[in-house]
Amino acid sequence: MSSCGRLFPRLFLVVFALALGSLALPARAAGERPPTISLDQIKPGMTGTVYTIFAGDKIEPFNVEVIGILPNLLGPKQSIILVQLHGEKAEHTGVVAGMSGSPVYIDGKLAGALSLKFGVFVKEPLGGVTPIENILSIPSDESPATPKALSVHSTVPDNGGTAMSAALASSLASSLGQKQRYPVPANYAQLAGAPGDAYLEPIASPLVFSGFAPATLRQYAGEWAPYGMVATAGGTAPPEVDDSKIVAGDMVSMVLVQGDISMSAACTVTAIIDDRVYACGHPLFGLGASNMPLARGRTLTTLSSDFNSTKIVNAGGVIGTLTEDRATAVMGRVGPAPQMIPVDLTVVTPAGEQQFHSEMISNPKLTPILMGIIAFNGLTQNSSYGEGSTMKLSGDIEIDGHSSVSLSDMYAPTDQFVPDGTFVASSVQTVFTRIFSNPYEMPKIDKVNLRVESMPERRVASILNAWSDVSEAQPGAPVVIRVLLRPYRGTPLIRDIPVTIPAQATRGSILRVQVSDADSLNRIPNLVAAQGRLGGLDQLISLLNRERRNNQIYVTLLKPTPTLLVEDKELPDAPLSQINVLDQKRLPGNSALLRESTAGEWSVPMDEIISGTTSVFITIK
């Protein structure tokens, strides 16, 4: 028989197998676990079918062929199945952002989820599949007393498949903020037509921004790239009665922000068992235990690109909660949605006032940046917003069981090549970071109220000099401190600030009068807080509320006696005996020692942001 004659039967069998795999298969019984195929049963040359959505709600199959197994690629007992994609659409688009989690069936059994793609241009569309046993190893915390059932609509028939092998122990969460790359052995890279330094990386998840200004996308898109996110503009789909009736191959969205604006990350459902939804086949953020809304994803279309094809996905109605974000998949539960943090933002410009309402998830790592994005977007999407504006911020953060954090400050534009709204957003983001990163307790934030007034000019002034009308003064005497200021592109001006010498001031001593901006006074107490020397969240809130504001001139009388900083309290004129007790050669962890004590502090509100510091000396006679 000729070589062509020997090749034809083999080619016919391969084509026939691929054709069978492309057929739509009947649904399984409700609540039934789909049969699975374990990694040790999968061999090179086997063919299978992947189910995903390219447009609309239609789940479409395409075929794959197993190239080989990459053992321990992701870590110990974390192997990957390397596959080649077949089919007109799959070969046209390649591996698509948002396709991660698409279920892969081999011999009619669930083998895993399409989760990785080549990180370099290759001649053939190839991908990596996370084995199903690693996906189902995610801890589920099942409560037998309160089971919840969800119909399982599987696209594979019941052909008597045996149960999968025992689940592995809890998966390791991937490192936050570090995009993972996994080198591919040279023999597989050569087979794929890739260079010797080829690597696999997680398939990107579309991060859909709805209601955001282009300036916001430009400013913050890079923040999400290390997590494997592709920032795209999009919208939201109205809730529908069948949103919760999801099946393997459907899209789901993990909601970060919702309301007048929304942010959500999307990927594909791998399997549904009872009320548990497994998706992505790789971590979203690697947060471990999570608590964010899980919504139905509605695919508009797939944008084909030689660089990075992407599904355009809108978030639909919320259907439950994402509870686990692990190394091999994410898992959620269909049912109630988690509580989110309401944010009310009012933006005032010379043209009028606009109000925005949104809600964001509560997470120590994500909430601060989400708050910054919400504040920045509220400013920049206002039609009256323009660069060169001074921003005045006010508001509060309500924390359950604690006092509110008061927000009040001014921010001036600069000549830096960054949007002026960045300074307001960064300030709010920093406050949230300090609240969430406190070492005392996990805060529960009830609500955030923000008000930002935009004034279209640069309002800043520098302290050039200061002097007193007298060089000597008696205890209890009034003294006027004169401060020379230079406004931005304006005429220098003098501001008089009356102060009073303390009645108990020691005759013959010299007081140092410090004239300064807010930052100079905030620096020492904040250093104490940063070193974990406070006694709890209440003391941190107290310190935040006592911080000085940028738009004030501060005059502080300082005497040459030591001050003890103990937790959130300042103890001036500390006696030597007390210092010796607390010192023990080195001060205890919740204390610090300053060489001067405050004898009085005065401030004058200004319409400008003040910078600079200088000192004046007065002798007590």
Protein architecture, described:
The chain has three domains: 313 residues, no CATH class; 115 residues, Roll (Ubiquitin-like (UB roll)), CATH 3.10.20; 161 residues, no CATH class. Helix content is 17%, strand content 41%. The protein is built from ten helices and 33 strands. α6 packs antiparallel against α7. The longest helix is centred in the first third of the chain and has 19 residues. The radius of gyration is 31 Å and the shape is elongated.
Mean model confidence by pLDDT: 80
The chain-level structural class is alpha+beta
**Assembly type of the shown chains?**
single chain
Q: How many β-strand runs?
A: 33
Helix content bin:
10-25%
| End-to-end gap | 120 Å
Question: Biggest sheet, strands in spatial order?
Answer: 1-2-3-6-5-4
| Overall tally of domains | 3
* Proportion of residues in β-strands: 35-45%
Core attributes:
621 residues, six-stranded antiparallel barrel, 10 helices, elongated
What's the short version?
The chain is built from ten helices and 33 strands. A hairpin with a 2-residue loop joins strand 28 and strand 29 (569-571).
What topology emerges from the helices and strands here?
Layout: H1 3-21, E1 47-53, E2 59-75, E3 78-86, H2 88-93, E4 103-106, E5 109-118, E6 126-131, H3 132-135, E7 182-183, H4 186-191, E8 199-202, E9 205-210, H5 214-224, E10 229-233, E11 251-259, E12 262-273, E13 276-279, E14 288-303, E15 310-325, E16 330-334, E17 341-349, E18 352-360, H6 367-380, E19 390-399, E20 405-411, H7 421-436, E21 445-455, E22 460-468, E23 472-473, E24 478-487, E25 493-500, E26 510-516, H8 518-530, H9 537-546, E27 552-559, E28 563-566, E29 569-571, H10 576-583, E30 591-594, E31 597-605, E32 609-611, E33 613-620
Parallel strand pairs: 9-10, 17-21, 22-32, 23-33
Antiparallel strand pairs: 1-2, 1-4, 2-3, 3-6, 4-5, 5-6, 5-8, 7-8, 9-12, 11-12, 11-14, 11-18, 12-13, 13-16, 14-15, 15-16, 17-18, 19-20, 19-21, 22-24, 24-25, 26-27, 26-33, 27-31, 28-29, 28-30
Helix pairs in contact: 6-7
